[in-house]
Write a structure and sequence with these properties.
3 strands, three-stranded parallel beta sheet, 5 helices
Length: 111
């Protein structure tokens, strides 16, 4: 949703909006949530990744979540295009257990 929002803002407001996202660089992990059923999901993910790089957040561990899998017929094409992505449905809760397990494995042990 944010990608669509940013794309339609005047350039001056985009710069202001980006400044509010500066805290992302302080994150330990990023969850990038994409609408798997959206016709331009690949473009949207590309814009998000490019923006993260431009913001200096490209090295932060991230996990791509393809949401709304309950609305797509075939996720194989997206799975090939985005290896490592998790396919979930917030509505039906499909894939949420795997998401929790994956996130737990990405968090370094305290010590």
């Amino acid at each position: 949703d944010t990608v669509g929002f940013i794309r339609h803002l005047p350039p001056g407001l985009v710069a202001s909006f980006r400044s509010t996202l500066e805290e992302i660089r302080e994150s330990d992990m990023l969850l990038v949530v994409a609408d798997a059923a959206h016709g331009h999901v690949r473009e949207q993910i590309s814009v998000v990744y490019k923006t993260l790089e431009e913001m200096g957040a490209g090295r932060i561990p991230r996990l791509l979540l393809m949401n709304k899998t309950d609305r797509i017929k075939d996720q194989d094409e997206l799975a090939r295009a985005f290896p490592g992505a998790l396919f979930i449905s917030a509505r039906s809760k499909d894939g949420l257990a795997e998401l929790k397990k994956t996130m737990a494995g990405m968090i370094p042990a305290a010590g």
